[in-house]
Amino acid sequence: MGLPEDLVIINQAENPKDPSVITINCPDKTGLGCDLCRIILLFGLSIVRGDVSTDGKWCYLLFWVVGRANPRWDLLKERLVEACPSSCVLASRIFYYRAELQQPRPPDVFLLKFSGFDQKGLLHDVTEVLCELELTIKRVKVSTTPDGKVMDLFFVTDTRELLHTAQRKDDICDRLRSVLGDVMLSCEIEWVSHEVSVSSQTNFFLSPAVMEEMFSLELPNEHSNESSSSNCVSVSMDNSLSPSHTIIQVHCQDHKGLLYDTMRTLKDYNIQVSYGRFAVKGGRSCDLELFVMQADGKKIFDSSKQKALCSRLRMELFHPLRVAVVTRGPDTELLVANPVDLSGKGRPLVIYDITFALKMLGTCIFSAEIGRHVIGDREWEVYRILLGEGDSLSVSWEKIKTEVMKMLMGWE
């Protein structure tokens, strides 16, 4: 039998200023909170309050969310249900978690070739359509010709797993044409083999100076200066207040995806959350309290593990994404680094936020690439945007960096 109908319940707020409430009642697994927070973030929603509890087999989660005026609630519910672990339903109506015996196969990768006439905000407009149609952009290569035309190559996967069908391909190209009109010249979508997908991965060179600016918090023997920042992050860990759990308390400035960043870090460390509370207070200030244990069901007693986990949490909450602007002669280059978790996923909609911020600034994109780099023991998804000639004269590089960061962090 299937999953119960009340696995995910969404109560939409009557007043647009009030948060909607998402209730999830399902089997538990390590990292489930991270997966659910990522989906909520993918739909353009921010969590302003959260309560999580589990006995290790079954969990109950409440999320108060705000964001887009008209999110696709039915589709969000469908995606949240899909993220919940499989279950079997017994005659007594008690549900038990059924562990999956096999890892799901990687999704097929497709190459979407888009050509058209260049205009400000074009890459964002295309990206917005692809995101709305539930295509995940794995890599992108954008180039502009001297005669004012663009050729965009998007390597994408399809959440709906229908991109192998002619109907799905036609629907995507038709949607792009309806949004872009005569700006669009052509749209082609084709399946690419794993070998082609791997060989097309971009690993552009990052100079030592750029790496130091962007990843200085990751480099050994480097000390961050959180205490001098208005975005102060406090992380404490205690083993005396609970007989069976280590308690992690966090106080910091809020940002878009904060709960996702926290859960992602705990998932990477294989830490299980038994109970947690999260709330945004007074605009940007937020408090987070988590009752956690290791995968073996024990507290975190090892002082080195405590130090490593606290340090990583401070780092992820103080500086979740890295942004730098580099000038090379007449060219201005924007670089954004997005951390990738151990499952190979990074924060969603980063390319959407970057291109939206640049569109609002009226800044043209001459070329764009997405590559992956291993810095120390971490993998990063790095976005490299070459801005159009002359734009750096009208918009300062500091303004570009600030506005892109504000968009990524959800700061008005």
TrEMBL record:
<dbReference type="GO" id="GO:0016597">
    <property type="term" value="F:amino acid binding"/>
</dbReference>
<dbReference type="Pfam" id="PF24926">
    <property type="entry name" value="ACT_ACR9_C"/>
</dbReference>
<comment type="function">
    <text>Binds amino acids.</text>
</comment>
<dbReference type="InterPro" id="IPR045865">
    <property type="entry name" value="ACT-like_dom_sf"/>
</dbReference>
<keyword id="KW-0677">Repeat</keyword>
<dbReference type="Pfam" id="PF24914">
    <property type="entry name" value="ACR10_N"/>
</dbReference>
<dbReference type="InterPro" id="IPR002912">
    <property type="entry name" value="ACT_dom"/>
</dbReference>
<dbReference type="InterPro" id="IPR056816">
    <property type="entry name" value="ACR2/9/10_N"/>
</dbReference>
<dbReference type="InterPro" id="IPR040217">
    <property type="entry name" value="ACR1-12"/>
</dbReference>
<dbReference type="InterPro" id="IPR056805">
    <property type="entry name" value="ACT_ACR9/10_C"/>
</dbReference>
<protein>
    <recommendedName>
        <fullName>ACT domain-containing protein ACR</fullName>
    </recommendedName>
</protein>
<dbReference type="Pfam" id="PF24931">
    <property type="entry name" value="ACT_ACR9_3rd"/>
</dbReference>
<feature type="domain" description="ACT">
    <location>
        <begin position="111"/>
        <end position="194"/>
    </location>
</feature>
